Each structure stands twice: as structure tokens, then as C-alpha cells.
Amino acid sequence: MLFYKSLIKLKHPYIITALVILMIIFTLALLAPVLTEYDPENNDARNRLKPPSFKHFLGTDEFGRDVFTRLIYGIRASMQVGFSVVILTAVFGIIVGVLAGYYPSLDNVIMRFLDGMMAFPGIIIAISLAAIWGAGKYNIIFALSFAYFPKMARIVRSAVISIKDIEYVESARAVGAKDNYIIFNYILRNCTSPILVQATFNFALAILDEAALSFLGIGIMPPTPSLGGMITDARSYMTVAPWLIISPGVMIILSVLSLNLLGDGLRDFLDPHLKGSIKN
Amino acid sequence: MKKLFTMTAVLILLTTLIFSLSVSAQEERYGGTLNAAVKMSVAHLDTDNSTDSMISSMMNHVYEGLFEFDKNLQVQPHLAESYQVAEDGREYTVNLRRGVMMHNGQEMNADDVLASFDRWLRLNNGGNIVEPYFDSVEKINDYKIIFKFAEPYAPFLNILASPVSNQKFVVRAEEIIDKFGDSVITEHAGTGPYKVENWIPDQNLTLEKFDNYTASSLESSFFAGERTPYLDRIVFNFITDSQVRVSGIQTGQFQFAEEVPRDQYQIFKANSDINTQIIYPDKMAVLITNNGVPPFNNKYARQALVYALDFEELGYAMIGNPEFWRLEAALHEEGNPWHDETAGEGIYGVYDPEKAKELLAKADYDGTPLVILSGQDDDMERNGAIAIKDQLEEIGINVELQLFDRPTVVEKRAKLEGWNIHLSPFIKTVPDPQIHQGWTGTNKWITNWDSEESREMDEIFERMVKEVDYDERYKIVQEFYDEMWDSVPYFNILDFSRLHITRSNLRNYQPAWQPFFWNTWLEE
């Protein structure tokens, strides 16, 4: 509540707008089974490629499946991928980042390895791994997590290095506090804001890249709906059934845009140096 | 008065004659370059050394067969003048046409045919089918040859003219064969209406009109009969993206575009600059079961699969617009000499999920998930696999869908384990019922079928290959259909057609199973 009041007080329109859009999208995903009477995978091919109507709010696809139903179930899949990737990148990124930042002897080894990984664009690593492991939701979650965790680790490492020599940490060390205690109680607590900001960007990236992998045919396997997969399938019907590509396209834009806005807003909101400027 | 009447009549007659001549001259026009957009590139231009039908499709303009198929899939002599089949079915005497000029300036004779035949027998997939039965070939003179077999061999002429893939036997100049042997031929000299002018790999193939072309005197009908090269040049452009092929037709860059999206059919029809060309007969969607492992090593489980599927629903899902697909139980289309309208009676297209469940129980199916292995690059295969999964799940069967790229599918389906159902497009224009032996029978192709029923099927094909009398052979073909729909080693779900489009100024185009451009011309 305090957080919300602070946002209102800050009159930060980006965060408010992003949160409202994301709330709507999450609600659609969570309530999918009660919002539609159709099954996302059941075919009715005799009614294929029907334009939007009262019966089919967003029309039907090439199998006669309800596009609205597939869209909201597709969001579910994208959100599952996004959340899972955020959690996995956060866990591995924090562990590796803390080890590198807190223990100078490990820093060089870990960071050179991460530098090597970061030399390749994340999507290339994800495509390579997904191609090796095969298509499927769990494989792309691991592939994307593996691709994104170095950035999270680098951010955590930077935050840990800047915090570990501050006086209150040195005081804790002087009174005999163990490393674990210091890391969990003094350092990580103060790394929350960069981790949170990076997590929102990772969420957006995961949704976008899941769509890209599904578009390339190495993402979520059909007939399970996914936003990227819906766009791939719709490509062949763009001229005769444009509604097939518009709805998943708009949904990807809205999700990614609002997550990026949220990330930007949170960064500004949590940055003490920018607080004054926002207030003014 | 009488004189005036006569003069008026003569004037009318003359006007009519001049008008009809001018119309005729306007209709059939020589000259011009045709730009065709074909869907894929080729590795080389040697049909004997590849199974790529795209090579045959283009090189049909350069090389011709001793025999060619007409519009009704009846074999006709082409470079052959006439032929006789010995009563015992062991000898085929072929008389060659005289005065047929080749692109190297020589006249075609028996030596060219023998050299080409020897190479075809060794290298070509069609030749490999004939080779086990073949005994020898004898040259009587420059224009007469006798092909001899150890046993009666009925499908010989049909396989010589095979429209499947690269199988057709074509006549090449002997000097070219002497020069290249079994290696890929890169210089071409045939008898066709066009000769190779230039080939830029992955870009285009340009064919140039052969001025000394010697046409057959038979009436033109698809690949058989008279071929007139009206066009000066034909350029085959390799364009992999279907939308680019469509755009090329819309802008007038191309006059022919191969295989365009069927769902845009109404858009094409509404455009007066575009003519639509639906290919029939063309292909069939075939469902293959792995008959080497449970549950489909039991014929009741295979029969259950036929009853479990709603073929009409599958037609909409796989192909879409019903103008492009039709239900057909026979492996040869209506009008074909080997079509049987009674094939599959009582089982084909009978959607009865309850009966399917009964048959599965009879086959002791234990509920193990069935694996559908299918390609994801082809809409028919991909959409068909998804639709079949949906229909099987509706009757309570657990299904695992595995979609891969073509090479992976080919690798996986070659194994005994790891898959149960596979969907594949087959060419409908097969030259002879004997061709079905290649994937039907004991352990043929990928079916892993080895049982009492498969051996019964082998026996049917053994009789079919030796029977040269059409009526008697047709009865054996009917036996094959009966056995096929009883033991169901695989089955045809439906027939479907590809859609090509042509620019409206391309006249007299004939929508054959492989595109050809002799007898077509470009209007001014």
C-alpha cells in the first residue's frame, strides 16, 4: 500500500500504465479456463478461418480453433516461460554474482567465463541450446535462463563490490559476523533494486525470445498455444485471415512494452539519485 | 441480281477467311522469353543421378522418353515409332522414329538408346526397379531394339515412361554418356524442343529453343505427342519464398509461379491478370503405421485407425479449400486405367469411433501413448499430424506428437522403434500398380510389416508383375485393393492438388503433374 501510495505520489505514469496493462494480461491468463467455453487444442476444421464474430470474438484459425481462447492460453504459456526464466536467472545470477563479487579469488575466473558467454547474443545461445536439446517448453526455459543469467550475475557482482566495503559491512565483519550472514543480511538486501529491475527486463526478453523460438519452430510444440507459435502459423494466412496475426502480435507488443516500462519506472523509482528529480 | 448475290457471297467468305486467319495468327505466337518461378533450386541437371523431381520437371524440355504418358496417364510411344510385346511377356520390340535430331547435330539412333538405357538401368531409381527382372537388350539395326526379360515383366513400358520423380527413361546422346559415364552430366544433348543455354546454380536455368527439333506426329496430350516450341527462351528462376513467387506474377515479372498458397485462391481468381492452375491428378495424403511394433502389428488396430479418423475433417485441416482435395480410397485416380471405384468399400471414410474402440480392444491395445512422427515444413504433414492427434485423443487415445525437419523425420522413421504413425505425401500419378510394391509387402519401405498378411500381399505382387494381359492384371489389382483395405498396412486419406498460377498472357498452358512450356505461347 505504501509502495502504491508512493507511486501515486510520484505521479509516475509509466509504472501505473504498465501495472494496469500487466494486471489485465495476468488476469486473462489466470482466468483462461473460465473466460472461454472452447478448448485451445480442439479442432473444428469445417469452421476454419472464420472472421471475428459474436461466437468467436477474435475469429478462428486454420484448424477452426477459437483464436481468443488460444490467445489467452498462449499468454499463460508465455507467462510461465517468463516467470520461470526470471526465477532461474535470478537464482543462478545471484549465486554466481555474489561469489564473484565477494570473493576476489574467484572473480577473475568467473568473470572471464561470463565475458566469453556474453560475447554471443543471448538469442543465439538460446537458439543453439534449444536446437540441441529439442523443442519444448522446459527446454526453452533452460535455454533462455542459461542465455540470460550472465547479465544478472554481472549486475549482482557490481552491486556486491560496491556494497561489501561500505562501513556497516566492515563493522559486521569486525564484530565477527560470518560471510553467509553478511551476504544475506547486509549485501543482498541492498542489491534488491538492481535485481528487481533486471528481472523485469529478463521477463520481457523471455516473452519476446520464446515467441522468436516458437516462430522458428524450436519453441513450444504445437498444438499447445504460444504467442510466437500463433504468429508462425498465421504467417501463411496473412492475406486471407489477418486477424490471426494481429491479436498475438498486439499481445506480445503490450506485454513487452509494459514490462519494459515497468523496469524503467522501477529503476527510476528505486534509484535514490533520481528520486529528487522525479519529485520535482 | 444473281451476279450481285454471288459477289456478295464471295466477299463474305473472303472476309471470314481473312478474319479467321488473323485470329489464328494472333492466338499462336512464336517468340518471347518465359520467366517461370519454381519453388526450389537443384544440385545438378542429371536425372539419372538424383531423385529430385524438379530436375525432371525442367529437363523434360531437353530430354524425351521412348515412351511418354498422355493426359489420361496412358503410355504412348514418343521417340519410339511403334512397339510389340511378345505373347509370353518376355520381349519388347521397339522401333525408333527416324530422322530425330539431337542437340549435338547427330541423328538419334539405337546406339544412343542403348547407351542411355544401360546408364538408366544402373543409376536411375526407375531403372533399379526394372533391373532385377531384366535379361538383355539386342540391337537389330539402327532403328530397332529388343528388350528381353528372364520372366514375363508387365510394367516395363509404364516404368520407362514413369512420371514419378526422376524415374523416366530419357534418351541422351551416346557421346555425352561416353564422356561422363556414371558421373553427373554437365553437358547436355537430348532430342527435346529446348536445349540448355545457361545454368547459374541457385539462381536460374535458361533453356533455348532447338531449331532442328523433330516433333512427334501424334496428337499432343501432356507429355505425349507433338511438342511445338513457340517460346524462344524459358528461364526457370529458383524462388523459395511462395509470397515472392506470387508477387512476381502480380507485377508481371514471372509468367508462371509454381505451388502458391491455396488459401489465396479467391484472391487470384479475382485478379484478371492471373490464371489459376489446379493440378489433377497430383498427390495423396498417406498415413503409414509402424507395423513392426504394437499396437499396429495387429491388423485390428490398423483397421481401428481408419474408423477413428474423420477424413473429411482432416481434409479441411490438412488442405483447407475443398476445391483442392477429394476423398479417394483407390491409389489411382478416377479415369486412370488402374482406378477401382469399389476399393475400400465398407471401411474407407466410415467414421465410427465406437467401432474403432472395439477393434482396439480386440487388438489388446494397452493404452501406451502413440507417437505421431511428422514433418513440420510441409503444411499438409504438419496440419494433418496435429488434426490426427486431436481426433485420436477424442476417443481416449494418448498421443505424443513429434514434429521435426525433413532429414530428422527420414532418420527417425527408418528405425523400428520410436514411432507409430507417420504422414507423408505420395505422388498420385504413379505409372503402374507394380510401383506400390515398393512400399507394400514384407518389410517394404518403412512399414516394418512382416506377418502372414504381408506374405499374402507379396504373393499378389508376384502374380501382378508377370501378368501382361490388362484385364487379367486389373483383377489382380482389385485383389491388391481388397487385401490392402483388409490388412491396412498404410492407407490413402485423401487426394489433394497443388495450385500454380500463370500470368494471363501465357496461353494454352496445360496443368500437368510436372509443369511444361512447349505448346504454350506468350500473347503480345
Overall description:
The complex is a heterodimer of chains A (280) and B (524). Chain A is mostly helical. Chain A has a single domain, classed as MetI-like fold (Orthogonal Bundle), CATH 1.10.3720. Chain A is 74% helix and 0% strand. Chain A has helices spanning 2-10, 13-30, 32-35, 67-102, 104-118, 122-133, 137-164, 167-174, 179-187, 192-215, 227-235, 243-270, 272-279. Chain A is elongated and about 75 Å long. The two termini of chain A are 22 Å apart. The relative contact order of chain A is 0.15. Chain B has 524 residues and is an alpha+beta fold. Chain B folds into two domains: 33-277 and 499-522, D-Maltodextrin-Binding Protein, domain 2 (3-Layer(aba) Sandwich), CATH 3.40.190; 283-496, Dipeptide-binding Protein, Domain 3 (Dipeptide-binding Protein, domain 3, Roll), CATH 3.10.105. Chain B contains 15 helices and 21 strands. Chain B has helices spanning 2-27, 53-59, 110-123, 125-130, 156-160, 174-180, 242-251, 265-269, 299-308, 311-318, 353-362, 379-394, 406-413, 452-466, 470-487; strands at residues 33-38, 67-69, 75-77, 80-85, 91-96, 134-141, 144-149, 194-200, 204-209, 233-238, 256-257, 274-278, 283-289, 325-326, 370-375, 399-404, 421-427, 490-496, 499-503, 506-507, 521-522. Chain B has a seven-stranded mixed β-sheet. A six-stranded mixed β-sheet of chain B has the order 14-18-13-17-15-16. In chain B, strand 15 (370-375), helix 12 and strand 16 form a beta-alpha-beta unit. In chain B, helix 3 (110-123) runs parallel beside helix 6 (174-180). Mean pLDDT of chain B is 92; it is low at 21-25. Chain A binds chain B through residues 41-43, 45-46, 48-49, 62-64, 135, 217, 221-223, 236-237, 239-241, and chain B through 261, 263-264, 266-267, 312-317, 320, 376, 379, 382-383, 386-387, 389-391, 401, 403, 405.
